Amino acid sequence: MDMNLQPLAPTCFVSGEAFVEGDRVVSRLLRSASLEILRYDMLEARVAEFAGDGTLICSWVHSYKPKTKDENPDRTLKLTAENLFITLADPLNEPTPENTRLLQFLALMLERKRILRPKGRTSDGANNIYEHAKSKLRYEVGVGELDPAFFLAVQEQLSVLVGVPKEPEVAVVGAVESGNVTEQESD
Questions:
Q1: pTM score, whole prediction
Q2: Tell me: the pLDDT tens digits for 132-162?
């Protein structure tokens, strides 16, 4: 799952104020009516004033750091399941039910791809611990109930993020003899 994402804005979407190093910035991904994924960056103090059109996919809070000259902008624009997980799992982000559910799903997916390695649970049993294979950094992800309701909610979140698959068209082929009508899928 890859998609292009706008880079971090240098100014607050709500107020237009320039970000200063160390500012707490809230980043939100929304899917517009035209199915485009849009990123909005704003000062944490201005979140209540934000009115974005679209469906909220996820959000995270981070400290603003200006870009360095040697940073590769093309690489940071590509949003993959791996870097979405790393962004959302950052300990500085306050967990929300939506982000936690998405993190749990991404952790399962990345564990299967051997990008994350399970390392047990925290001492209180509330979080699973995963180690990132490349960086060896450890992330804690809330333990959740992987019931049908969980997967339906994740499916809804992912459909907002990547779109809803087209339903196959069903053509009706009449078999008039014997009065039966059969359905056949068409491509």
A1: 0.49
A2: 988 898 988 888 887 788 777 777 777 656 5
